Amino acid sequence: MALPLVAVVGALGTQGGSVVQALSKSGSFRARALTRNTESEKALRLKALQNVDLVRFDANDPALVKLAFDGADYVFAMTAEGEDETANGKLMIEVALHVGIKFFVFSSLPDPSPYVVPFFSKKHAVSQFLFDSVLPGCGIMLPFFMENFLDMGWIQKGEDGVVDLKFIRVPETKSSEYENPQSPFLPCTS
């Protein structure tokens, strides 16, 4: 009997890549690593893993989404910032329903209301669409990736050799965790 197949959206990213690697390492699943660029060095490293296939994917293209999900048992999905995340997420859920996906895992973020944080709001809208559908699934909310400190240039070594951790915070910007008296987090000062 063939191992269950998991289609992993964003397989070259931090989340997707770690999911593909974990599935491969488990020996209990096959992973279909979905990415726009199947010829990159990173993609070819994933393809070399046990029980991993590489498939070209574009969340804006319904035909490619169907091709990527067809025959899979499960989907691990996320949406890319800067694209029409809500439309892409809804399309993936609709296609997953159509092809008979057994369970759909979506990497989401919490509803930022009453604050306006489009990056959070769009992912939350996709989760709500999933929950309102008949597709079995769940939304997961992963913590901040420590790699972001390096990737986003927040850690920098100065000319004097001192390493600085830099965050930009506009004083008039409201932050729900800092200002919510019910928050389990301690107030932060900058």
TrEMBL record:
Residues 5-156 form the NmrA-like domain. Keywords: NADP. InterPro entries: NAD(P)-bd_dom_sf, NmrA-like, NmrA-like_oxidored. GO terms for cellular component: nucleus. The keyword DNA damage does not apply. Belongs to the NmrA-type oxidoreductase family. It holds the Pfam family NmrA. This is NmrA-like domain-containing protein. Gene3D superfamilies: NAD(P)-binding Rossmann-like Domain. It comes from the Eukaryota.
